[in-house]
Amino acid sequence: MSFRLSSSARDYFDKIEQNSSTGDFDSMWDKYYLAAMVGIKARDRIRTDDEPTDEPFVDSVISDYDDQKYEIYAALIMAEIERQNIPKRAETEIRHLMLEILDSTDPTRLTSHGKTLLNCYAERGYRILENEIPAPGEFDQFLRQYHEALNGV
């Protein structure tokens, strides 16, 4: 199990790059991260049964994000705690959830289920972005609109 973006999400981000003269994304992980953060902040994801089946774009967190992966995972866990309405003081339930998501033996530090969840948040985040920012003309314009969309979810 690896990190995946649907072909429609890839097309959306590729179109931004193709239309832009002001820059582009450094990596596919950047696109994934932006989409995942929107889904996580919105506390909304697609069903795990609907996880994208497209070819994974990477098997592990890229080195540029290695220092931030734990912040990403913490945000993922908080989103799931809120989605599942787990009380903040329910230590046993939270510990169980963390064990379902985190795996210290995997290079990503996520279980297969954790990767699936992150993929599902990224997919929902892309769909929110596509709805909020249907056709940005320039990369810098997209980034400004992304910031507004992220603050609005």
Quick gist of this model?
This protein has 153 residues and is an all-alpha fold. The chain has helices spanning 7-19, 28-42, 69-83, 91-101, 112-132, 139-152.
Describe the structure.
- By secondary structure, the protein is an all-alpha fold.
- It is 58% helix and 0% strand.
- The protein is globular, with a radius of gyration of 15 Å.
- The two termini are 28 Å apart.
Q: Which key features would you list for this structure?
A:
single chain; 153 residues; mainly alpha; 0% strand
- Shape descriptor reads globular
Judged by helices, strands and strand pairing, the structural class is mainly alpha
Separation, N- and C-terminal Cα atoms: 28 Å
Helix content, binned percent: 55-70%
Q: Could you give a short account of the major beta sheet?
A: none
Topology (elements, then pairings):
Blueprint: H1 7-19, H2 28-42, H3 69-83, H4 91-101, H5 112-132, H6 139-152
Helix pairs in contact: 2-3, 2-5
